[in-house]
Specification:
The chain has 23 helices and 20 strands. By secondary structure, the protein is an alpha/beta fold. The strands form four sheets. The chain has an eight-stranded parallel β-sheet. Strands 19-18-15-14-13-12-11-20 form an eight-stranded parallel β-sheet, covered by helices on one side. Strand 18, helix 21 and strand 19 form a beta-alpha-beta unit. The radius of gyration is 27 Å and the shape is elongated.
Amino acid sequence: MGSPGKNPDVEEQLRATLAERILVLDGAMGTMIQAHELTEEDFRAERFRDHPRELKGNNDLLSLSRPELIGDIHRAFLEAGADIIETNTFSSTSISQADYGLGGLAGELNITAAALARETVDDFMRANPGRSCFVAGALGPTNRTASLSPDVDDPAYRAVTFDQLAEAYREQAEGLIEGGVDLLLAETTFDTLNLKAAIFAFEEIFRERGSRLPVMLSITITDASGRTLSGQTPEACWHSIRHARPLSVGINCALGAGAMRPYIRELSRIADCYLSCYPNAGLPNPLSETGYDETPDDTSDALGDLAGEGLLNIVGGCCGTTPEHIRAIAGRVSGYAPRDLPELTEATRLSGLEPFRIEGEKAPLVMVGERTNVTGSPRFRRLILEEDFEEALSIARQQVENGANVIDINFDAALLDSEDSMTRFLNLLGSEPAVSRIPFVLDSSRWDVLEAGLKCVQGKGVVNSISLKDGEEPFVDKARLVRRYGAAVIVMAFDEEGQADTVERKVAICERVAQVLQETVGFPLEDVIFDPNIFAVGTGIEEHNEYAIAFIEATKQIKERIPRVHVSGGLSNVSFAFRGSPRVREAMHTVFLYHAIEAGLDMAIVNAGALPVYDDVPTELLDAVEDLLFNRRPNAT
């Protein structure tokens, strides 16, 4: 199998096998350990004899105190037909081990457990030369949630931060790789933000190593609601984590295979990677020998039905599944062809708690609510400065009720701790499902504020914005980070010479950006939204008279010359010179939008609910506004 953790052929070998048949994952390590009825002394052994805290139940510690037992369990699953063995490291982060007073042991636990699984698999393959088996480094979700508060009286509080999770996952993944795993498996995800932190850590390691390991991702649907514990649907979750380019995505734990069926079907339709399913052996049953309802035949029959529908690529077992379950599953699915990967249509896929897509050349305009922005809403600014965040949340709710598909969130103001305000507001929004069901646009001129926001959002949002203002190198660095956080990005038509105000400059900058993002960063263009700068007209300055025309024509050319990208703009800018005349401003916004959409505008930052219909604008006002926007008369203003 090559050097530990450094086999360049592993992914190629896995993909070749997955094209031919359904691969089999192992079963429940915890169930097998429980069957041995171990005592406190078994977990301690000599090394931890005097440890001050109780250790019974810390199954991962057995890789150090009872390695022969863990090796025997791995071997039993291999003999039952498992192709992929998981390391005994589900809780081997410093965060989870801190409950036992063993946080500092995380690195050693992962290295040792990975080496033990590696040795067991290699020995098994030497004894069974016809079998190719793999070691998956298992990373559980930890016992903390980054998207939810454990304190009902303080919804903005979080027991763990994104940075703490990423650091813990990095330490764990590095130990697993050093110990010799073939791939990384982040599993039983109940909070997508935790999983995004793991992905962030993986990507950091891969960048430093100069090579990647295959990654498997698996989420947990907690009940009949069809959502994760943190509230996302399977499709919304997939949009949030697709940037990881995983070998597979799937569902495990919490439910039996039969109850998983609708969610496996949903993932199978939308995921353009391999699909895994390793359910519990039904529901918990304290009277059962394994603690769960289903016999090996029950579980294998249910998974066989899913395989018969062409839904599976990787199959195995979670809680309550034994080598007998895995043997039955392997036999049951062996006669079925693996699932074919779907060909997806090109689309921008965003998410809050629910999925959101921008799809097709004539997709409806995406309305980005502008009122949760301290620079554009005096009321929102006042509430934030007064620290009345509860009332500020009502503005977000109102924007969604008025039809905003996405909301723009900005805290760039003097006398305001923008980073803290962004974090606090987003954390509060996490307890507002009516708002957090839609994606967020994180808006700031400061990178530290944008990054603080990215660390709070479990969905796939949009960064607003980055640009070439400071040159290519810092632009590339920020674009790579946006990608690692799993967001889409708005890029301003702004380079080292300043903001573009002519058609030629707007288009040239956007073409340059697209080339850099594609060739240097590997950023998918469907996740790129250009803002070619909407500037005010009617200011009395002659050079400003062509600004509306320049934006509309640039939008048309950008959409023609750069496939897959989108174009957005801050609508209120165009009427800024008329800020004392709300009726005129609303008419200008409506008319400008009408013509910009015709040219290809996809998104606009608007006051949702305050846009008249184009055909309802009085003729006299309509003619006056179009004269102004298209510079048809010198006295149009």
